[in-house]
Amino acid sequence: MNQRVTVASLQQMKRDGRKIVGVVVYDRQMAEVVDRAGVDIVSVGDSVGVNMWGHESELDVTLDQMLLVCAAVRRGVRRALVSCDVPFGPLQAGPDAAIRAARQLVNDGGADMVKLDAAADHPDVVRAVARAGIPVWAQFGITPHTASRHGGMTQAGPAMAAALKDQFVADARSLEASGASLLDFTNSGPVAGPAVTQSVSIPVIGGLGGGPWLDGRVRALVAAVGYTAEALDDTVERYANVARVTFDAVTTFAEDVRAVRQIRGATPSKA
């Protein structure tokens, strides 16, 4: 359990039929928590812009912001493999810009691997980054980054997944041939998902729209444990509801202060 996770060990997990666990986090404290819990991949996602900073889209996040978050997460991880998203921009600018961004995330951010969104549209960039010696987690499927390729849709139902199955298989094989070490298949569905997973030798992992047919799953921690404010009111099934626990705790703290009671965890001054 204490052995460091590597790209090679993740690929061996696929061959052994062992599922890969990935968690998206944005800070050092939660990075340490999930690492100690034994996850295999700690992913620094550009979703930090939406989930933590209130951006309208992941596309608003900059490379400097990703570097800051990646370095913080790296400080909390000892065992898991750390992947960091290359934000929107360098990938679209071409191989040279993508390599520069990837090297910064590795050298300055501490990433072990970089994730390239919309990678199926840029196999030349995947090839260039991989040839530069940087492991690539290549995303494909349907996301805000790739919606225009699929008629503006951002989610794939069973019918659409079936219609796109051959294309997704071709995308996966192209990305593997381009040097990707892992694949992130977004909105895979139960039709295209198994076909893609069986068509390549590298691990296929997915979050939104994924399922047990993949080699592993990745989930944003804020969604899994109900860290966002929306968890106070929605009925989504989660592994915890941190927002509710925090709301109740802060309410009690405020009551203690207003009632002139000593607050919990604070040692009264002896001066």
Structural write-up:
There is one protein chain. This protein is an alpha/beta fold and 271 residues long. The chain has two domains: 7-224, TIM Barrel, CATH 3.20.20; 225-263. It has helices spanning 7-16, 28-37, 48-51, 63-74, 90-93, 95-107, 123-131, 158-177, 189-199, 221-224, 242-258, and strands at residues 20-24, 41-44, 81-85, 113-116, 136-141, 182-186, 204-206, 216-220. An eight-stranded parallel barrel has the order 1-2-3-4-5-6-7-8, surrounded by seven helices. Helix 2 links the parallel strand 1 (20-24) and strand 2. Helix 2 (28-37) packs across helix 4 (63-74), helix 6 (95-107) crosses helix 7 (123-131) and helix 8 (158-177) runs parallel beside helix 9 (189-199). The model is unreliable at 150-154 (pLDDT under 50).
Key words describing this protein structure:
271 residues, alpha/beta, TIM Barrel, 2 domains, 8-stranded parallel β-barrel, 11 helices, 42% helix, 14% strand, globular
CATH topology of the largest domain: TIM Barrel
Spatial order of the strands in the main sheet? 1-2-3-4-5-6-7-8
Radius of gyration: 20 Å
Q: Spans of 5+ residues with little confidence (pLDDT < 50)?
A: 150-154
Architecture (CATH level 2) name of the largest domain:
Alpha-Beta Barrel
Mean pLDDT: 92
Q: Work out the helix count.
A: 11
First and last CA, distance: 48 Å
Count the beta strands: 8
Q: CATH superfamily of the largest domain, please?
A: Phosphoenolpyruvate-binding domains
Class per helix and strand makeup: alpha/beta
Main sheet attributes: strand count, strand direction, barrel closure: 8 strands, parallel, barrel
Instruction: Name the helicity range.
Output: 40-55%
CATH class of the largest domain: Alpha Beta
Q: Which overall shape is indicated by the principal axes computed on the Cα atoms?
A: globular
Q: H/E element string?
A: HEHEHHEHHEHEHEHEEHH
**Proportion of residues in β-strands:** 5-15%
User: Any idea how many domains?
Assistant: 2
